[in-house]
Prior knowledge:
The complex is a heterodimer of chains A (844) and B (254).
Chain A: H1 3-13, H2 15-53, E1 59-63, E2 78-79, H3 81-87, E3 92-98, E4 100-105, E5 118-123, E6 133-137, E7 145-149, H4 150-156, E8 163-168, E9 171-182, E10 193-198, H5 199-205, E11 211-212, E12 214-219, H6 225-236, E13 240-244, H7 245-292, H8 294-302, H9 307-346, H10 360-386, H11 408-427, H12 431-481, H13 483-521, E14 526-530, H14 540-547, E15 552-565, E16 568-575, H15 577-583, E17 588-591, E18 601-605, H16 606-612, E19 619-624, E20 628-638, E21 647-650, H17 651-657, E22 667-672, H18 677-688, E23 694-698, H19 699-706, H20 708-742, H21 744-752, H22 757-794, H23 807-834, H24 837-842
Parallel strand pairs in A: 5-10, 7-9, 16-21, 18-20
Antiparallel strand pairs in A: 1-12, 1-13, 2-11, 3-12, 4-5, 4-8, 6-9, 7-10, 8-9, 14-22, 14-23, 15-16, 15-22, 17-20, 18-21, 19-20
Chain B: E1 2-11, E2 18-28, E3 33-37, H1 44-51, E4 59-64, E5 67-68, H2 74-84, E6 85-88, H3 100-104, H4 106-109, H5 117-127, H6 142-154, E7 160-164, H7 172-189, E8 193-196, H8 200-203, E9 208-213, E10 216-222, H9 226-239, H10 247-253
Parallel strand pairs in B: 3-8, 3-9, 6-7, 7-8
Antiparallel strand pairs in B: 1-2, 1-4, 4-5, 9-10
Amino acid sequence: MRIVTVLRRGVAARKARGLATAGAVAAAVAFLASSYILTDTVNAGIKQQADAATAGVSAVVTDARGFGGSVLTGAPTLPVSLVSKVRAVPGVVAAEGIVEGYAMPLDQHGHPTSGLGGLGLSIPADPRLRLVNLQSGSWPQGPDEAVVDAGTAQSLHLAAGSTLHVALAGGVRAFSVTGTVGFGGAQNIAGLSVVGFDQATAGTVLGSGDTVAAVEAVGAGGIDPTVLQARITKAVGGDYTVRTGAQQAAQLVTQVGSVTSTIGAVLQVFAVVSVVVAALLIANIFAVTVAQRTRELALLRCVGAGRLQLARLVLAEASLTGLVGALVGLPIGLAVTVGLRWGFDHFGLPLPAGPTVIAARTVVLCFVVGPGISIVAAASAARRASRSRPLAALSAVATGDQNSRLSWWRRVISVPAVLGGAALAAGAQGVAPAGLGSILILFGVGLAAPALVRPLTAGPRALVASVSGFCGRLAGRQMTREPRRVAGTAGTLAVAVATVSIVAAMAASLVSNSELDVRRSLHAELVASTTPGSGATLDPGAARRLAALPGVAHATGLSCGIFKAPGDSEKACGVDPATLSADVDPGVTAGRLADLAAPDTMAVNALAAQRDGWHLGQRIPITSPIGGTRPVRIVALYDNEQVLGAFLIPESDYLREYPPQDQGLDEILIRTEPGQTGPARQGVAAVLAGYPQAALDDRASFAVRAAQGFQLLATIMTALLALSLLIGILAVLTSLALSVLERTREIGLLRAVGAEASHIRTLIRGEALVTVATGTAAGVLLGLPIGWLLARAVLNGHLPGPPSIPVPLLAVVVPAAFVTGLLAAVAPARRAVRIGVLQALRAE
Amino acid sequence: MIAATGLAKSYGAEPNRVPALRGVDVAIPKGTFTAVMGPSGSGKSTLLHCLSGLDTVDAGTVRIGDTEITALPERALTRLRRERIGFVFQAFNLLPTLTAGENIVLPLELTGRRPDPEHFDAVVTLLGLADRLEHRPAQLSGGQAQRVAMARALITGPDVVFADEPTGNLDRRTGRELLDLLRRSVDELGQTVVMVTHDPAAAARTDRVLLLADGRVVDDVAEPSGAEVLRRLDELDGDENTNQSTDATESVSR
């Protein structure tokens, strides 16, 4: 008798169990696969577009200090004179400057068309230097013409000859569309809207003045690009970086890829969460089935099967189901990828287009992880199986009450793990130790779970009993009868709910912290602001026009740009300390803000200073785009960073050190005359109607807007985590289904003595509800404090406000968990109701 | 009064249909103790299941009191089982999560009714379970467990108790004790009991034995003795010309 035959028949005989295990693996594998497929697809798309953009270019000159900001080439910090220098290099047949800046196409209602950003681009006269290729129409010529990317043209129904309104730093301007462009075969790059102008127009409308972002050159036929690169490097000097076309394409991939790789990383985190939850589910299923098969396994021992053979039997079954799960999960992952792409498009974050890429690495990973998690999860069950005593086959063991007492090692480890984890997380100054502490807490609670089942389920049990009467009480009894199974099932759900709660609590705390920051610091009655990271700015003229309005006391524009400090790249804003205090109170904790009147000074947010290890009075060498590197003295530390940002330098320094494009305003703070806020707001809104990239807020709504970034991130993360909740619900379903199978006889008896179908349904539903309620409550109770601790750690221990409870999210997650829990009871309950009394009473 | 006329029941689908009952007429008066006997496969259990509404019939009628049960819908049948019929099975079939006392009142609890304390005390005292009420089934001996099952059958004051080989899992002494209790429930509480059994000694404690063979009632013995029952069973074997020893002879010779 081969043990394999036993295995094959065993699997065939327990289809439901096999399906549940394979289903859990499939879900985890699908998540894993989709995270890799999506990342690979996006990267391949970017690579293709980058190659197409730089196809004809032999060399590209950019700022050596690498000021980011623009998408394709960098910040416009290069003097126009550099172009003629490059043109003069022997072997260069053509060279032109490239200008980039903010230009957002508007739809017919005047709203921006892309959530990511709008890229304005100069179109070089030499066709070889053009980053984009024409897909229809002709190239723009003159100040009133523009081309637009094919994707935007399609969604706005534009063709050559249409009029397109574009939001620019200087306000809205109308252009006549002459054609549509793309990057190679793709309609746009990295999901951005693109508007192209001729060289002269680009310099004006994009506000780059006499600077360019890069100089592109084409070499004479036959010249090796690396030779040309060396010659140009020699000609322009060490302040500039010279790349070949291929190198520039690679640089572009890295630059754009860093944005999309964040999405990939987030997806991978969720893949890991779902793998953990699936492993818990599988461990639970195998623990239950090994207990259920005690007699069968013992019988095998009786007829001479070795311990190892039994362990191998269980492990082989696990790897087989894992393999099936991986086979099913991979195509599901592909479908999920398609769904995610649609989702991102739908939320205004289009990912780069391109064919779907399934790398060999992805496939291998799925087939390693699928059977892998099954085997790891089934290991403890296999150990238990190998310990089956032959005698157990002979004694008629019923599925008796499980012991809720913890083994000595669980007791020894769990308590210190929870206490140590809590101490670590509470005392942590960084995210890493806080994260470790959180994992320790979860681990310790998981070990102690069987002992916690009775006290934790007490509430739900009493509730179900009081609502459903006798059957509810019966359901409660079933819970305390098998504490390990309940711990496994509710624990799986609890982990899923806890991750959602952690994210929600963290986000809620960070959001409320940021809102508190604004409420404490903002004095200005009105704020006009652009979306951070979109590249959008307002020209300084806008602030002057606002200041001149009736009812407006004054309006202060805030310009911000990147600077480099040792090991760091941050955004500094130029301010005038004399007028600042009327608009904002940054909450100075050390030093004096007034000292910012002196040149070469800086005020820093206290938290940022702590993170960078800077202190008051210290001199920090910083590099700005124009002036080069100079030391600045830290004259003040302050608390509130939501309105002004984390780094402030004198306005006069800013004007000197930053190129024209960076002189655009990120924000305008508006003080109104006493009692004139209402009327003044109308005037301000009328002026800002010409700047669709700016949003107008009062103090309260600006506080909400400032926290919007966290809010959006939290929403996306929660939506993804909700999928791990599904696996948690699957755990409840399988556990119930197995439990019903095991208790066929008991349920048959209940029917024989007169229990109606509704009684049986109430019983199963009661069990589901108690499990789900306990799992959800445990998850929330664990997740919220951990989330707060993590938020505190993110803010280096400075969480000034009280811990906030993510009410709206919990208001969704908790009822959703309950409803799905009840739905999970539907199939097992139906099965239980259908059990025929006579067969049940005959069942073993 | 339980009355069945023309009961017929087959299992399986054509062409492999196996008839289990082929036209059975029985009338069981109230307050009597009836045994149903016969060789394996004679239809004893099927008859019991059909009389108690656990199984459907192909033809014929079953009346329990004034109720014709073969036409009842599932819900009404369930209510009938709960309120007017008691069951005792060979495998005691107690719910492991409930105490003995809770198992006894299970049929009442399902409808949220409180047991009548006097009746509860009477049943518990009759069955000698007063000091076992807080025990879980796992803590009870086989005899005690079967007495709990019997108490559960009696607690509703049913029209009839059906017992399917109630002594099958018990040793001889406890089996005898249980039969005493069934006998007393008939004599002292006026209960009607119908019992399927293989054991002529058990049958001897009843008022009447119905002998089944091949799905038909072939004999009806009033006031049976063990020897009489054994003789009739042997006759039955002789009729069928089988040389195999029946369960019944085994049981007596043991």
